[in-house]
Amino acid sequence: MEDVCREMQATGTYTHTASELEWAGRVAWRNSTRCVGRLFWKSLRVIDAREAITPEQQEKAIRRHLRLATHDGAIRPVMTVFPPEKTGRPGPRIRNHQLIQYAWWEDLGVGDRANAELTRFLIGKGWQPPATRGAFDVLPVWIQTPGGPGVLIPWHPEEVLRVDIRHGRHPSLEQLNWSWHAVPALSDFRLEAGGIVYPTALFNGWYMGTEIGARNLVDPDRYDGLGALGRVLGLDQSREDTLWRDEALVVLNQAVLESFSKAGVTMIDHHTATTDFMKFCDREQRSGREVQADWSWMIPPISPAATAVWNADWPNREQDPRLAQNASMTGP
């Protein structure tokens, strides 16, 4: 604290040590109200990229993050922290929500609808779409460096691990030619710690199967694939009380879990994930910490009533270090 005070008196700010930055990243994950995977918060590997000032250095850090996180399919939780905000210098920002996202082609009606605006933005910045466009074309990353024009970072095919979605007992599912990428690396997060703001903190855990099988591939504003899935499975879609939607979702989620397992890529099912979260809650309580959580994000999108979190209840408050700092200054 004496070192921090001296540095603040001299410069108006201070610099976290590497160990402080690592602890900040881990605690930020531990306190994330919308993450059900917090049991493993202590395993987070935090990469210090605060010296990545130039576009070339930042591109290198981004590629390194995905490589370390992918780990040949044995997905590792990783956070990469870029330079902080300073007076008159806002810090780098990434336009993409995730490092790996798929394009939406309006004229063809294929791809990920959620990325319509991002696709247009990247084309406007000079990205050349592939000659043959399809449903799973990986978008480049756009990073904006303060004072610079911004840089497009295209991915090489060998950098992006993908998994084809198949089902051993439903071979007709292969007709859809669905696949998904292995690492859910969020790229528009910011990290706040001890009054310092890092506007770009890449973060990933691993996928829970329902994220792909009950949201990404079937949500109407994403791939909207539930109807096509029901057709290739031969389900009766003439009326709702056949519960064809429910049957199709279960088959698809089985396929996602089976496909990732056969490919040797880390994934967790929603029953195991929610059970793990209750273990996390128990550990936190035994450590004297109150768990905050957004219940609507803790329950999975299929069979929520059959999971361990259905009847649970938590306060839904964001842990903000600025509020904590103010509280400590004004007393209990």
Chain-wise SSE layout:
Elements: H1 2-11, H2 18-30, E1 45-48, H3 55-70, E2 78-81, E3 93-94, E4 104-105, E5 110-111, H4 116-124, E6 141-144, E7 151-153, E8 162-164, E9 179-181, E10 185-186, E11 191-193, E12 196-198, E13 201-204, E14 207-208, H5 209-216, H6 226-232, H7 244-263, E15 267-268, H8 270-286, H9 295-298, H10 321-330
Helix pairs in contact: 5-7, 6-7
Task: Describe the fold and architecture.
With 332 residues, the chain is an alpha+beta fold. The protein has one domain (2-312): Nitric Oxide Synthase, Chain A, domain 1 (Alpha-Beta Complex). It is 34% helix and 13% strand. It has 10 helices and 15 strands. The protein has helices at residues 2-11, 18-30, 55-70, 116-124, 209-216, 226-232, 244-263, 270-286, 295-298, 321-330, and strands at residues 45-48, 78-81, 93-94, 104-105, 110-111, 141-144, 151-153, 162-164, 179-181, 185-186, 191-193, 196-198, 201-204, 207-208, 267-268. The strands form 6 sheets. The chain has a 4-stranded mixed sheet with strand order 1-2-13-10, with helices on both faces. It has a 3-stranded antiparallel sheet with strand order 3-6-7, covered by helices on one side. Strands 4-5 form a two-stranded antiparallel ribbon. A hairpin with a 6-residue loop joins β6 (141-144) and β7. α5 (209-216) packs across α7. The radius of gyration is 22 Å and the shape is globular.
